[in-house]
Amino acid sequence: MCETGARINEIANISVCDIKLKEKAILLSCSKTTPRPVFFTPETAIYLDKHLEAFFPDPAKDSFKKRFPGKNMIYKIIDSMLKDLGLKTNDDGRGPHTFAIMWLQICAIILGWIWIMSPVY
């Protein structure tokens, strides 16, 4: 999510066959806008390659399997991580969409990106 800027629903619908390691790209076929490619770094390609080899060893059989957890699970993961970081409490009324945007900002800071626009949440 951090490197590609992909939406949570787009990430949840990535299949193994959508990942193009040599091109360092993922085709987001289930997109809110139009199907589009997003790109990732060579370091991410290394981790993805190792992960795909370990969990999806048969490219022909595994090609259409979903690669990431579903949308609701991704929201829960983000929510849990923000609570662990002390950025959200249990009685905090903000919903998962707010935190998805906040999560992207946190990743941008961690990765050393400069956040030029003011936050939208």
Could you describe the 3D structure shown?
The protein is mostly helical and 121 residues long. The chain folds into two domains: 8-62, no CATH class; 71-110, no CATH class. It is built from five helices and three strands; from the N terminus they run αβββαααα. It has helices spanning 8-12, 42-55, 59-62, 71-84, 96-110, and strands at 19-20, 25-28, 36-39. It has a three-stranded antiparallel β-sheet, with no helix packed on it. A hairpin with a 4-residue loop joins strand 1 (19-20) and strand 2. Helix 4 (71-84) packs across helix 5 (96-110). The longest helix has 15 residues, at 96-110. The chain is globular. The mean pLDDT is 77.
Strand order of the largest sheet: 1-2-3
The domain tally reads 2
Using only CA atoms, what is the Rg? 16 Å
Structural class: mainly alpha
Determine the strand fraction and express it as a percent band.
Answer: 5-15%
Largest sheet: 3 strands, antiparallel
The unreliable regions are none
User: How many individual helices?
Assistant: 5
Mean pLDDT: 77
Shape: globular
The number of E-state strands comes to 3
The ordered string of helix (H) and strand (E) elements is HEEEHHHH
The amount of helix comes to 40-55%
CA(first)-CA(last) distance: 18 Å
Descriptive keywords:
mainly alpha; three-stranded antiparallel sheet
Give the topology, please.
Blueprint: H1 8-12, E1 19-20, E2 25-28, E3 36-39, H2 42-55, H3 59-62, H4 71-84, H5 96-110
Antiparallel strand pairs: 1-2, 2-3
